[in-house]
Amino acid sequence: LGDDDMQGKIFGIANGIEGISGMIISFIALAIFNMVAVKELGLRFVLIFQSSLTIIIGFITYYALKDMQFSDNESEKYSLNDYIKVIKMPEVWLIGIAIFCYYTVFSSLSYVSPYLETEFMLSAAAVGAVSVLRQTGTKIIGGPIFGILSDKLGSPSKMFIIGFILVCACVSGFMILPVNSSYSMLAVILMLLLAFGLFGLTGIGYATISETSIPLKYTGAAVGLISLLGYIPDAFYYNIAGGWLDTYGSEGYRYIFTLSFGMAIIGLIISFILFKRTSNTRAEKKLNSQKSI
């Protein structure tokens, strides 16, 4: 959908719409759950509602996209060599590692709320309100803002650099911020800025494909491999972070922030490399277009 120079905006706005729709669906599901006296029955109705909605959206998507035409030859079938070509593409690995880095930090966000409650003495009600704002508000604005800025800069990977700088600053802020209730407001601001940066990076994560030399034919396989690399922290991160908190108590948060900072630095370095490679690709495309004239 759209030209290459619009991918950041498209992915970012889509991520923002996802945040809005997710919030609306959550409120509807909560209303359905509260309408039923028996909790088990209420949960069943919520699952039926969400499953039915997924099926309906699937049908709408199918009929909306069934007539879409692609520039590549659709009669060509994937072969084992095609998958091997995708595995050998450096840009696929760079994007996958960058997503792995910011998603590892993103996974740490779930520990920031209890950190504010136990270490900065915020009330449970205040933490709950801030958590809702972190989960919905920052997602609604983070993706679209990052997407629009990446298109204005002409490069999602350049916006990756800016995003990782913001993430590094916020995580380092948590590492040096004195654990004291008098700094609770500053801790809340750091959490919201961190969430904004992470949701912004999530919004434009796959837009970086548009500025690489990955052919359209291989985009599906590339996205699959990138997703496998990027979201694999779900398989192990929570066990590691939870183990630190169980073993070291409050000191475990220090380990979580240290790991997050390390991942943010690696992500920043990878983003610089990716930006350099995509710059070369854009230069080559421009040179080839001039030769063809």
Structure in words:
The chain is an all-alpha fold and 293 residues long. It is 79% helix and 0% strand. It contains 10 helices and no strands. It has helices spanning 7-35, 39-65, 80-87, 90-119, 124-153, 156-176, 184-204, 219-230, 237-248, 252-292. α4 (90-119) runs antiparallel to α5 (124-153), α4 (90-119) packs antiparallel against α7 and α4 packs parallel to α8. The longest helix has 41 residues, at 252-292. The radius of gyration is 21 Å and the shape is globular.
Topology record:
Blueprint: H1 7-35, H2 39-65, H3 80-87, H4 90-119, H5 124-153, H6 156-176, H7 184-204, H8 219-230, H9 237-248, H10 252-292
Structural class: mainly alpha
Give the count of helical stretches.
10
Distance between the termini: 27 Å
Order of helices and strands: HHHHHHHHHH
Enumerate the spans where pLDDT stays under 50 for 5 or more consecutive residues.
Answer: none
Shape: globular
Estimated radius of gyration: 21 Å
- Overall number of strands: 0
Strand content: under 5%
Characterize the biggest β-sheet.
none
Helix content: over 70%
Average pLDDT number: 84
Primary descriptors:
293 residues; mainly alpha
Briefly, what is this?
This protein has helices at residues 7-35, 39-65, 80-87, 90-119, 124-153, 156-176, 184-204, 219-230, 237-248, 252-292. With 293 residues, it is mainly α. It starts with 6 loop residues before the first helix and ends with a helix.
